[in-house]
Design brief:
The protein is of the alpha/beta class and 193 residues long. 30% of the residues lie in helices and 24% in strands. The protein has helices spanning 2-20, 24-37, 39-43, 60-68, 141-146, 188-191, and strands at residues 46-48, 72-78, 84-89, 95-97, 104-106, 112-113, 119-123, 127-129, 134-135, 152-156, 162-163, 177-179, 184-185. Strand 12 (177-179) and strand 13 form a beta hairpin.
Length: 193
């Protein structure tokens, strides 16, 4: 119960931090350029991304470049509480309003995608710890998905939302790599995934 209270406080703090971040387009471009330089991006065949929303690192550039680079790109569709699957898209035209207001998802008739060792999974979060820990919105969609995901996981984060570590429950799943506008990190917990 104590961890949940800590997480709730951090969610409020992070919302304020993210809204104070400078030019998100410029910082998001810097983060994307770092991603594009990684061997794990260059060698992957599939990119599982998400359509950024509100104060998140912008992912539209990543989605467009991955498609232009000939990679298969998939975005999530959320179903019943906690259920999420990825579906391939060929362009932004393949998106529609999703389960959550303002978040675009692949259309219902899109082809379902499965992650494998050649998949790069970009995981959203409100904040990241330098050790790969993440603070999500608290609904568990990504933790459930990541519990048996075989792809390489990467978190995108503005430097202001990067902490030493974050409180974690037993079901929380860290990412392998965190990219900010200033650095690329791989922490001890992150390396365990």
């Amino acid at each position: 119960m104590q961890i949940n209270k800590e997480k709730q406080k951090l969610r409020k703090k992070t919302a304020a931090l993210r809204s104070s971040v400078g030019d998100k387009d410029v910082l998001s471009r810097k983060i994307a350029e770092k991603l594009f330089s990684l061997d794990s991006y260059l060698s992957c065949e599939k990119v599982f991304a998400y359509f950024s929303y509100d104060q998140e690192v912008q992912t539209n550039l990543i989605i467009e470049k991955a498609l232009a680079d000939g990679k298969k790109v998939a975005l999530p569709r959320c179903g019943s509480p906690g259920a999420m699957s990825f579906y391939y898209i060929e362009s932004a035209a393949g998106l529609e309003n999703g389960t959550f207001k303002g978040i675009l998802e692949p259309k219902a008739d899109a082809e379902k995608a499965e992650a494998d060792e050649k998949t790069l999974v970009i995981v959203p979060a409100l904040a990241y710890g330098r050790d790969g820990t993440r603070l999500g919105h608290g609904m568990g969609y990504y933790d459930r998905f990541l519990s048996d995901c075989r792809g390489k996981t990467i978190g995108l984060c503005f430097e202001e939302c990067l902490f030493k570590t974050l409180p974690q429950d037993g079901f929380d799943r860290p990412v392998s790599v965190i990219i900010t506008e200033n650095e690329i990190l791989s922490g001890s917990k992150a390396a365990q995934t």
